[in-house]
Amino acid sequence: MEEEVKEDAQEETKVEEASAxxxxxxxxxxxxxxxxxxxxxxxxxxxxxKKKLVKTLVNLIKENKSFVVVSVKxxxxxxxxxxxxVLSEKVKLKYVKKSIIYRAIDEIDGELTPMxxxxxxxxxxxxxxxxxxELSGMMANFKSPAKAKVGQEAPENIVIEPGPTEILPGPxxxxxxxxxxxxAVEDGKIAIKTKKVLVKKGEKITAQHTAIMDKLDIKPxxxxxxxxxxxxxxxxxxxVGIKVDKEATLEELKTSFAKALGFAVNICYVNKDTLxxxxxxxxxxxxxxxxxxxxxxxxxxxxxxxxxxxETKAEEAKEEVVEEKKxxxxxxxxxxxxx
Length: 339
Prior knowledge:
Layout: H1 3-13, H2 20-31, H3 48-63, E1 66-71, H4 77-87, E2 92-94, H5 98-106, E3 123-128, H6 132-140, E4 144-146, E5 158-160, E6 163-164, H7 171-178, E7 183-186, E8 189-192, E9 196-199, H8 207-216, E10 221-223, E11 226-232, E12 237-240, H9 246-266, H10 275-338
């Protein structure tokens, strides 16, 4: 981290009675290699301001619900101050040397001792009454895009999208071609013709990759406070791996909700979320049943009509036979009378 960040952060963590110059001198003095003590040399005097700083940390740990260790490595000074300002409403931030942190931990019950293994170089301490996971979620919101460096692993597929650029043709055309990116010159500028995965997730980034990404202003990384470990005073527990990816978590929740909703509708479990779907399902079933009934009813009616027609025809045929018989009988009677 830049030297100005350390100085600014150390300024915040000084004891009220100590001046800024004094704190800086103490920090520089502490950073020097320790000289080997002589066999019978008396124990070195501990600076009173350091004792007060240790006491301040101890009080902060005891007075707040959460104590979180975060990495601030490679964060530019401007961004450090911006994040610090945003978090200040809920969080007290301290940036001190790890030897001071160790002393503060040693003065508290042994339950905090395992936190020492998570305190490395370039860490800051956050103290708050908010839950540690809530703090982690807050920090996830304050990350800025950052350029890639040679040797880093791609966090996701780094994709070059087709479209116009502001890059003038020249050596750049060859740089694109070497990486398999199809380009053309349009209106005096380089235009990318097809989509191209420049670096796959997990692959190492090379100098050729960074050159192209710089030209296209592609920033595949995000930098900000990275939670390392947290201590919950109320539960007296240490949590490790508390990074919260809000976007990924929300997507997982949406997927899980959709699956659970479908299952609940299928088993007709009624609540405010499933009721509209269950009613819609019932209406669809009603419409389908009505159609089946109508079709069956129509077929039955047609059959009855056909039967009536047949009966009518039979009656008519029967009447015709009767009439014929009557006619025959009349003719025979007339013949008898004539004789």
